[in-house]
Amino acid sequence: MDAVTSLNPTRLVIAALVGLVILLVLIIKFNIQAMIAILIGALAIGLMAGMPVEDIVLAVNDGIGNTLKGIALLVGLGSMFGAILEASGGAQTIAVTMVKKFGDQKAAWALGITGLVIAMPVFFDAGLIILIPLAFSLAKRTKKSSLFYVIPLLAGLAVGHAFIPPTPGPVLVATMLEVELGWVILVGIFCGTAAMIVAGPIWGAICGKKYNVAIPEHVANQEDFDESKLPKFSVIVGIIMIPLVLIIMDSVAGVVPALESARPILGFLGEPFVALLIATIVAMCILGYRYGYNKKELEQIMTKSLEPTGMILLVTASGGVLRYMLQYSGLGEVIGNAVSSAALPMVIVAFIVAALVRISVGSATVAMTMAAGIIAAMPGIAELSPLYLACVTAAIAGGSTVCSHFNDSGFWLVKSLVGMDEKTTLKTWTVMETLVGVTGFAVALIISFFA
After folding, report:
1. Would you give the DSSP letter of residue 167?
2. Is the pLDDT higher at 445 or at 353?
């Protein structure tokens, strides 16, 4: 559908500002659920802008339908894949093996890399709860501040969660910007690796020397887990790499003439939902049945993993409504013209928008959703190269990561698990999140110069 050309640009801008203020007030002041707040804000924009009611309804329907059709299967399959990895002990396998390979002196690097890899298929909260005992056990053994090991782990988890598919955030943004996941994965790996190094081992060493945070008392007295029962490292890495390799091969086949004959089969196998389905089935067979779970137990694990996906999908779909409301009202074109006159690269605009929402609302998912909706509604997005759009996706991920503070549930989770007070959490975790976001954005900006 084309934009409603008869709407006044000034009225559009005012409607957008008022609508976004309503959205933020509902979330911040009244603690309204994000999905409801985004829908109310989107409807307010359409009504105040003077859109015909039928166009508002169309924007809602198109926003929900077109957004969910791109990510619903991926979020569901990714949740089940991660649940099997978690239940089998696969996440602990990677952490334990990496720490042994790197040794105690470089264990911070091992934990950072482990967090990055694990957060791609496993949700941030689950990955942290699974792996933080290992960070505590290292601190206990080396008699160092737990931050030496906790910060690198947190940085790796934050990076994997924000920048690299199949985690839902970048999948959502890529879907809304209509960019192939292969490019997003490639750019995300470069951005994420740099961000993990800066915010993980480097910042962790500084925090560890400056803040002596002891491990929780209940951890100090507990026994170590039995490593002999964990699955093999090579098996876990191989399974995790299945969807990444298949998706990347599909993107590579599109630009390498020698692979043209294999494009049909690679295109099918590299379709994100097919790649994740294959990985999930392999995980069921190898990590599920082989490691002692019967059919009923495995079905229960996978079904339970789908419980949090409803909220993710509904918030995401609401963000799609916001995007289509901005597009169908013509506001996207107004914003796009303003950005063009400001001569700011789209990568910078994407980062700033996502960062402002993140700081205001706290939720990384809402920040990604709103920023992607605003950017996707701008004219000329479809003409940008896949590599540049992948950089825009990474910039949104970076902006949605910075400045975690009191309005972010992750802030309180980390504070509670690590045993820090609010002031120390701000000086360590909040700075770490900002380093992750800014570093990832900086790398994306550099890459965009060559797109």
Report:
1. S
2. 445
Rounded-to-integer distance, Cα 443 and Cα 54, Å:
43
Kindly report the average pLDDT of the chain as a whole number: 86
Q: Specify the range with the lowest mean pLDDT, choosing from 29-38, 337-346, 413-422, 435-444.
A: 337-346
Rg (CA), the chain: 22
Q: How far is CA 46 from the centre of its chain?
A: 29
Among 51, 62, 130, residue whose Cα is nearest residue 329: 51
Q: Grade residue 5 by pLDDT with cuts at 50, 70 and 90.
A: very low
Q: Residue 367: which of 34, 30, 29, 13 has the closest Cα?
A: 34
DSSP state of 229: G
Q: Please give the single-letter amino acid code of residue 227.
A: E
List the alpha helices (DSSP H) in 254-363: 263-269, 272-283, 295-305, 309-329, 331-342, 346-361
User: Residue 418 in contact with residue 146, Cβ under 8 Å?
Assistant: yes
How much is the pLDDT for 440? Answer: 98
Q: Are 125 and 79 in contact (CB under 8 A)?
A: no
Give the whole-angstrom CA distance, residue 419 versus residue 135.
13
Question: What is each CA distance from 285 to 75, 117, 250, 280, in whole angstroms?
Answer: 20, 21, 25, 9
Residues 6+ apart with CB under 8 A from 302: 80, 83, 84, 284
